[in-house]
Amino acid sequence: MISDIIDQIRLLFVSEKKPFLRLKSILGFYPRNIRLYHLALMHKSVAYHERDMMEKTVHRRRRIKQTSQNVEAKTSAGAPNAALHAPYVNNERLEFLGDAMLGAIVADILYKHYGNKQEGFLTTLRSNIVCRSSLNQLSQDLGLDKLIRHAGAVTTGHNSFMSGNAFEAFVGAIYLDRGYKYCYRFLEDVVFKKHINIDEMAKQEKNFKSSLIEWCQKYQYHFKFIQKESRDGTEHNAPIFHSSVYIEGISCGTGNGYSKKESDQNAAKQALKRIKRDKELLNGIKRSKEKDENEK
Q1: Is 278 a catalytic residue?
Q2: pLDDT digit string (tens) for 43-66?
Q3: Of these residues, 168, 177, 248, 264, which one is catalytic?
Q4: Other Cβ atoms within 10 Å of 227 Cβ, number
Q5: Which of 50, 14, 49 is nearest to 34 (CA)?
């Protein structure tokens, strides 16, 4: 493409070529505004860390001001206060934009790939492709996870989605840098052709809750999901949801997650696994149903 040739010529006049070439190996084309991609790979922990450092600097200078009459100390003491009111700079806004672009383009690709499939099938498959676990894996496959800037200790718990969130932000950066056409090109030529087999993913079972509900409806079993909420105790004190699924009043599975949907899915997954392997549990569900029917 002519634009690619122009980008190669433009690169000749760039002093620091390594970041451009690294991103080109991931994107399949040359980036232009490289700062967008740097922002896309900046986790919010970096901003919090920098804010903490600023606050410590302010407190230290205030102590100097209180113990010294030095004019220079007085004038510099208040300087960082403005910085403390500056907005956090991280990839969350780009993540918001990338999420929307990703959903739209994946929907377009699936619509064209499956000409005879109904809305329910397409919706479920799109959800499986853009879920956090899939995006985490994509980020690792592309090597984005190694480029993310963070302040450390953010790879477990709620931040286990850091790589997937960065992938969404990366898509947002592509859109702002090169537009919808290149965003589509990246997802179609790089992501789907090299890392995602749509037909194989369509065969995989990921909506465990829907499968469990269908199984219960097939045998007319009563079921219910119960959620409780707590906090993870980390710096950001994020909420954690705990789900339990009951079939005919019998506890069959539990699961945790950072959303009700995630915790329900994990509880349903455990329940399905137990039902298939634990004959005693299955017999207990049947006896409970029979007992309830006899009492009626």
Answers
A1: no
A2: 877 665 455 555 555 556 666 666
A3: 168
A4: 14
A5: 14
